[in-house]
Write a structure and sequence with these properties.
Length: 262
């Protein structure tokens, strides 16, 4: 079991959903928390709750803004100490049919779900390399391993999986671990939050699809259970962290098809 004493975690999308679940799990272990999110009201609520467990600092941050990311990282490390646990968790669920794809939709999906992860890595990785320690957890999705027709979302999440697997190989020599979280359905408000996010209305799910998608999401574990799964994955230094077995038959089918094509 890891000794978490003195650890500092930086969590994007940390005020809601899976990010909040991770923060709660870490807070219960005494990890100091830097929570970054675009939702200032949620940041305030989360800080009030989590401050009963541990030291918490909050920052309004749009992960697309590289300059703001660097400033926030400096402020967090000045307040809490060196960040050795980085959770690139902020994301949206963009949707578009193939017929309605446009450059602005691509730009938004890639900026939040992929560039947001890259910005977190590029901000903190040099610091971790210099210290020779750290753990990075990037939130992807089961849709980053098995495709569905939502090309915007799948593209970003496959990219995060590949980035994470490659980065893990590249930084192991520096004493840094990398995991990729590939959740299935998790009971969050991500569909609604996507619509309310800056520009999110352009890539929001069609109204007729929302009930079924939200029902699927609600069928999964809650964010607190997922937070504990993530912490367990970090302790195990696992390359992949899953939240359930829903993906297994689809992954087996994909692997068989890939091997059969060789």
């Amino acid at each position: 079991m890891r000794d978490w004493t003195g650890s500092v975690a930086f969590i994007t999308g940390g005020a809601r959903g899976i990010g909040l679940g991770i923060a709660r799990a870490l807070g219960r272990r005494g990890v100091s928390l830097a929570l970054a999110d675009v939702d200032e009201a949620a940041l305030s609520r989360s800080a009030e709750e989590l401050s009963r467990l541990t030291v918490v600092e909050t920052y309004r941050l749009d992960v697309r803004d590289r300059a703001a990311f660097a400033v926030t990282a400096d402020e967090a490390e000045k307040a809490l100490g060196h960040v050795d646990l980085l959770f690139n968790n902020a994301g949206i669920v963009p949707f578009s049919t193939a017929e309605e794809l446009r450059y602005d939709k691509w730009d938004l999906a890639l900026a939040v779900n992929l560039s947001g992860v890259i910005n977190g890595i590029q901000t903190f990785l040099p610091r971790m390399i210099e210290r020779g320690a750290g753990h990075v957890v990037n939130t992807a999705s089961g849709a980053g391993l098995v495709a569905d027709p939502n090309v915007l979302y799948v593209t970003t999440k496959f990219a995060v999986v590949g980035l994470s697997e490659s980065l893990r190989l590249a930084v192991a020599k520096h004493g840094i671990d990398v995991s990729v979280l590939c959740p299935g359905p998790v009971d969050t408000d991500i569909v609604r939050n996507t619509r309310l996010s800056d520009g999110g209305a352009a890539v929001a799910l069609r109204d007729d699809l929302v009930p079924a998608v939200e029902a699927f999401i609600r069928s999964g574990p809650g964010v607190d259970a997922v937070g504990e799964m993530v912490v367990a994955g970090v302790e195990a230094r696992s390359p992949w962290i899953f939240t359930g077995e829903e993906i297994r038959p689809h992954l087996e089918k994909r692997m068989a098809a890939l091997l059969g094509s060789l």
